[in-house]
Amino acid sequence: MDIAVFGGGGLGRAVAAAVADRGDTVRIIGRPPSGRHDPAALVGADAVVEASRADAVVGNLRAALDAGCRRAVIATTGWTSDRPIVEALLREHGAAAVAASNFSLGVVLFGRLVDAAVGLFGPLASFDPYLVEWHRRTKPDRPSGTAGDLAERILAGHPGKRRVAGGATRGRPEPEELEVVSIRAGASPGMHLVGFDAPGETVELRLTARDRSAYAAGILAAADWLVREPRAAGLHPFDPVVDELLAGAPVVA
Ligand SMILES: NC(=O)c1ccc[n+]([C@@H]2O[C@H](COP(=O)([O-])OP(=O)(O)OC[C@H]3O[C@@H](n4cnc5c(N)ncnc54)[C@H](OP(=O)(O)O)[C@@H]3O)[C@@H](O)[C@H]2O)c1
Asked: CA 176 to CA 162: how far, in whole Å?
């Protein structure tokens, strides 16, 4: 496979390393000095990976489509407002893309584990759910997008609970408040912990990221999914890729 990666930052380099590790061809396409990519630089790519910045997604996708590429994995975050344009461009060109704000297989499966745990503990009023996340001090947002998703999953099974903005930084929480705590310290690439506490015992599920290789593996699994057979034009979520992986399809991840 021949993969073109937009963006030579931490994620782009991790994807390029993963592609090279498995013996495929990769080129990193960095920020163009002129502001626009030359489609000639992308000709022949079986798939492009978008790993640059939100305001570059539409332009980069246009360049890839102009070069004849019809498969894309969009890992860049923060471009939600451009989603209708991206969807229209893909359909217009008969192209398919997988887009997700988190391509870690562990995160997807952790979400499903939390759903199962919430199904078990949710009906038991004696177990009080809580959520802790820890990221590097320089991470700009809190709580993380993944913590927000996990909180929604917990609330879905605890109808008596609700989220309170800034709840964990105020005084004693009300009984119905879901306690969500963010730690911003050091260099942690990401830790999420979901717990259920009862008077006599505690059950905790914890996901710890070590580096960006987990994202790279999921991104390549998505590229493989696109290449393996024709997919409908437009945007696809990551879940069908994971489902095929679980079903034993030959996805490398
Ligand atoms: N979906 C996931 O699982 C996942 C995981 C991790 C990160 N992300 C997201 O992926 C994106 C990249 O993350 P990162 O950590 O690698 O960020 P980063 O270190 O800031 O790297 C971004 C790179 O993109 C380059 N760039 C800017 N405009 C470009 C353009 N038009 N074409 C090509 N390259 C361009 C930047 O170059 P300059 O420095 O010259 O501007 C920089 O080298 C972010 O949106 C991040 O939130 C997603």
From this structure: 6
Please work out whether the CB of residue 56 comes within 6 Å of at least one atom of ligand 1: yes
Q: Using the mean position of ligand 1's atoms as its centre, give its distance from the Cα of residue 240 in Å.
A: 25
* 253 pLDDT higher than 70: no
Instruction: Give the Cα separation of 167 and 131 in Å (integer).
Output: 12
Report how far residue 10's alpha carbon sits from residue 52's, in angstroms, rounded to the nearest whole number: 10
Q: Report the separation in Å between the CA atom of 246 and the middle of ligand 1, taken as the mean of its atom positions.
A: 29
Closest CA to 157 of 198, 113, 199, 204: 113
Bridge-partner residues for 28, per DSSP?
A: 5
* pTM of the predicted structure, to 2 decimals: 0.87
For the domain bounded by 2-103+213-246, which CATH number is listed? 3.40.50.720
Identical fold for domains 2-103+213-246 and 105-208, yes or no, is no
CATH superfamily of 105-208: Dihydrodipicolinate Reductase; domain 2 (3.30.360.10)
Domain residue extents for the chain: 2-103+213-246, 105-208
40-71 pLDDT per residue, tens: 999 999 999 999 999 999 999 999 999 999 99
